[in-house]
């Protein structure tokens, strides 16, 4: 039997990462940050001089992505080709790059098995846009997290500010709205809830409540 998967999908700033990490801590499961793989692919294309709409070459790079995830306690370092890109990875510029390469079917195909390989005992928490629909359609628990556009922009803003980034709320809102539009309207693996996902609008909910609800879902299915 395959290890269980909790699939968490939704637009940016919905709280997926925070909820995913809390569940990982509570259950001791593995964690797949699929967005990081698309971000790394976008960055790698940029560094190799490959345009984010060059499907063939972008997919070639995605297939050999020299990425390393290093965990040291609470901190995590992500290396690309030996370079620490942890900070650059989180910028909205990289998010936009990621969303462009993520619209390419060939890139998604190139990253599919790599994502599935994260599924190991005792279980996996997978965070992304198509975890419940494409990558782990058999996941026993699927959650679709969302929140109002204003609240999501504000959360992302606070997150980036905390990391010391110099951003404005107005331009960040616009950039995120455009990225979500592209993610939801693309033909390949568009952002949408799986038919069997629990839809959770977290607007106005505090994060602890959301974490409790998701944990209860998982525990109820084990
Ligand atoms: O979640 P995160 O903001 O890091 O994702 C960056 C981008 O990567 C998303 O806007 C989306 O275009 C793409 N992505 C995706 N499928 C996933 C995860 C992320 O297309 N499973």
Automatic annotation (TrEMBL):
<keyword id="KW-0067">ATP-binding</keyword>
<dbReference type="GO" id="GO:0036430">
    <property type="term" value="F:CMP kinase activity"/>
</dbReference>
<dbReference type="InterPro" id="IPR003136">
    <property type="entry name" value="Cytidylate_kin"/>
</dbReference>
<dbReference type="GO" id="GO:0015949">
    <property type="term" value="P:nucleobase-containing small molecule interconversion"/>
</dbReference>
<keyword id="KW-0808">Transferase</keyword>
<feature type="binding site">
    <location>
        <begin position="10"/>
        <end position="18"/>
    </location>
    <ligand>
        <name>ATP</name>
    </ligand>
</feature>
<feature type="domain" description="Cytidylate kinase">
    <location>
        <begin position="7"/>
        <end position="219"/>
    </location>
</feature>
<dbReference type="GO" id="GO:0036431">
    <property type="term" value="F:dCMP kinase activity"/>
</dbReference>
<dbReference type="InterPro" id="IPR011994">
    <property type="entry name" value="Cytidylate_kinase_dom"/>
</dbReference>
<protein>
    <recommendedName>
        <fullName>Cytidylate kinase</fullName>
        <ecNumber>2.7.4.25</ecNumber>
    </recommendedName>
</protein>
<keyword id="KW-0547">Nucleotide-binding</keyword>
<comment type="similarity">
    <text>Belongs to the cytidylate kinase family. Type 1 subfamily.</text>
</comment>
<feature type="region of interest" description="Disordered">
    <location>
        <begin position="177"/>
        <end position="198"/>
    </location>
</feature>
<dbReference type="Pfam" id="PF02224">
    <property type="entry name" value="Cytidylate_kin"/>
</dbReference>
<dbReference type="GO" id="GO:0005829">
    <property type="term" value="C:cytosol"/>
</dbReference>
<keyword id="KW-0418">Kinase</keyword>
<dbReference type="GO" id="GO:0005524">
    <property type="term" value="F:ATP binding"/>
</dbReference>
<dbReference type="InterPro" id="IPR027417">
    <property type="entry name" value="P-loop_NTPase"/>
</dbReference>
<dbReference type="GO" id="GO:0006220">
    <property type="term" value="P:pyrimidine nucleotide metabolic process"/>
</dbReference>
<keyword id="KW-0963">Cytoplasm</keyword>
């Amino acid at each position: 039997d395959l290890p269980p998967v909790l699939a968490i999908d939704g637009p940016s700033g919905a709280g997926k990462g925070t909820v995913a990490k809390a569940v990982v801590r509570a259950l001791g499961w593995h964690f797949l940050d699929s967005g990081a793989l698309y971000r790394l692919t976008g960055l790698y294309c940029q560094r190799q001089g490959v345009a984010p709409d060059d499907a063939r070459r972008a997919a070639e790079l995605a297939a050999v992505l020299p990425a390393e995830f290093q965990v040291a306690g609470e901190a995590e370092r992500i290396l690309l080709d030996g370079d620490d890109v942890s900070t650059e990875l989180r910028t909205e510029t990289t998010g936009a790059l990621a969303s462009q390469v993520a619209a390419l079917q060939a890139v998604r195909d190139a990253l599919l098995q790599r994502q599935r390989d994260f599924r190991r005992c005792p279980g996996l928490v997978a965070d992304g846009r198509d975890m419940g629909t494409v990558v782990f359609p058999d996941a026993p628990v699927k959650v679709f997290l969302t929140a109002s556009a204003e609240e999501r922009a504000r959360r992302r803003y606070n997150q980036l500010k905390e990391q010391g980034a110099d951003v404005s709320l107005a331009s960040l809102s616009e950039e995120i709205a455009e990225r979500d539009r592209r993610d939801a309207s693309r033909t390949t693996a568009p952002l949408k809830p799986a038919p069997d996902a629990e839809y959770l609008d977290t607007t106005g909910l505090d994060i602890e409540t959301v974490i409790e609800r998701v944990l209860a879902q998982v525990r109820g299915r084990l």
